[in-house]
Amino acid sequence: MADTSPPDAERRRHAVVLVLGDVGRSPRMQYHALSLAREDPAMDVSLVGYRGERCIPAVEEHPRIHLHYVDPFASERLR
Q1: 13 DSSP 8-state letter
Q2: CA quadruple 5, 6, 12, 14: dihedral positive or negative?
Q3: Could you give the count of Cα atoms lying within 13 Å of 70 in the half-sphere of its Cβ?
Q4: For 4-56, what is each residue's pLDDT tens digit?
Q5: Which helix (H) or strand (E) holds 14?
Q6: Distance CA 19, CA 45 (A)
Q7: Which of the pair, 65 or 75, is modelled with greater confidence?
């Protein structure tokens, strides 16, 4: 059977940048996400952390960076 998967250049990739705190107050992690998205056009990036301050405009407006917010107290409910 022939391999029908797309060539490596066409495969979508996904990175997750996890912030253990307020995403907006973590400029270094925002720049990591931005760098990953800009370096590889096949890379989608999920930036995950607590909601709070707004992210820099370049992160908020980038089409391949997706912000995901978690509740900082979710782990307390699991106990």
Answers
A1: E
A2: positive
A3: 13
A4: 666 655 689 999 999 999 999 999 999 999 999 999 999 999 999 999 999 99
A5: strand 13-22
A6: 13
A7: 65
CA pseudo-torsion sign 29, 33, 34, 36:
positive
**What is the mean pLDDT of the segment spanning 58-71?**
97
Residues near 53 by Cβ (< 8 Å), separated by ≥ 6?
22, 23, 24, 25
Closest C-alpha among 18, 5, 31 to residue 70: 18
- Please say whether the dihedral angle defined by the alpha carbons of residues 52, 53, 59 and 63, taken in this order, is positive or negative: positive
b/e sequence 11-40, b meaning 16+ C-beta within 10 Å: eeeebebebeeebbebeebbebbbebbeee
User: What confidence score (pLDDT) does residue 72 get?
Assistant: 82
